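Can you give me the bound-state structure? Components:
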Amino acid sequence: MAEIFVDANHPGPETVRGAYLAIARKWRPQTLEEMSGQAHVTRTLKNSLTSGRLHHAFLFTGARGVGKTTAARAFARALQCVVGPTPLPCGTCGPCVDILAGTSPDVVEIDGASNNSVDDIRTLRDGVRYLPASARFRVYVIDEVHMLSRGAFNALLKTLEEPPEHVKFIFATTEVNKIPDTILSRVQRFDFKRIPATVVAARLRKICDAEGVEITDTGLQMVAKAGEGSMRDAQSLLDQIISFGGASGDDQQVADILGLVDRRFLYEMLRGVLRCEPERCLQSIAEVYDSGHELDQFTDELLELVRNATIATMSEGARKFLDVSEEEKAVLLELTSGVPSEQLSRTFQVLLDVHDQVSRSTRPRLVLEMAVARLVAIRPSQPVGALVDRLVDLERRLRGQGVASPRGRDPEGESR
Ligand SMILES: Nc1ncnc2c1ncn2[C@@H]1O[C@H](COP(=O)(O)OP(=O)(O)O)[C@@H](O)[C@H]1O
Ligand SMILES: [Mg+2]
Ligand SMILES: [Zn+2]
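Here's the bound-state model for the whole set.
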């Protein structure tokens, strides 16, 4: 821990940067098995490794920091391991050791951004002819492949049309729309997805535990969400938190560093709304306001919380879509128990409206405070059936007292 994150010689931003590289590198999964999320990709890759029916060119697409380069390296090793091709490379054979050290002559990593000319690809084509030096295949990994020039793509296409048996290509890109169709039609394509926050949080938990960093599940969930589906971004945020807060950070510190509203105020606000306790709401608004946060961000996060609260009241199966830590899940379930989901969805509707007003107003605090009255007034409406029953009952009782049924009466009879 200490030797990675605390560097007495380079305090300040450099440390943050250095630490960022350290976590992302140190925790790059070495095998497909170890990757978080992307099961739809890793499953297919693993199957093709075990079945031995291997395509000669693969394209990994998706947003930044979701595991494309990681998967390319892991897959390369899976192809090359002496006991392979196997989803579980041994880690000790010649090719495994070389690839892990980044010194394998048979796994060539090319940065498409800086090697994008026709000449670069011609050099690659010349290299393709040679048999592997020591491993099973010659594996070419071209990262940021969309950066290749038109001429370079054409040169590449020639090789893709008639690839030598011993060559495998793995291309990675964040911008698949820039890849010519002629190339696309000759590769096996894998679309990497953004990684769900709960999955990212679970990986961060593992990292924190191993590194002796104490951050709660709620804190990690905040970090994961702020990463917006990118594991790398989440890890870099985690580094920042560690470099500011050391080996432990409470939720408030984490929220501060991420620029988020402290979740306690969100929960207080929701509690106030659901229990019809306006003073709780006004208090949370005051605290958020005093802490210097934008109230439109607060209402925005509140909307998400109400979304989660609503899901908490749905079926057990729906709960897997909850976007909160286990700790918060327990709080949400307690908070919403007995609350009809209809009340929550109406709260959501009102809040949506309020959010709109708050973000446009020059007096957001006033708007939000006035909205509290609307929010705490939301009651579950009664089912129509129950209302009809009550009316019928009322009518019957009135008749019993000798009063004529309202329906049969002249509406103006009394005044006449
Ligand atoms: N699916 C994943 N599972 C675990 N760690 C991941 C995953 N995706 C990215 N990472 C982490 O983020 C870092 C950057 O990932 P990388 O594979 O280079 O992303 P990109 O999709 O931009 O190529 C890795 O070193 C690793 O620590
Ligand atoms: Mg990459
Ligand atoms: Zn091996």
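A couple of observations. The domain at 263-376 is CATH 1.20.272.10 (Zinc Finger, Delta Prime; domain 3). The beta strands are 57-61, 107-111, 138-143, 167-173, 188-191, 214-215, 248-249.
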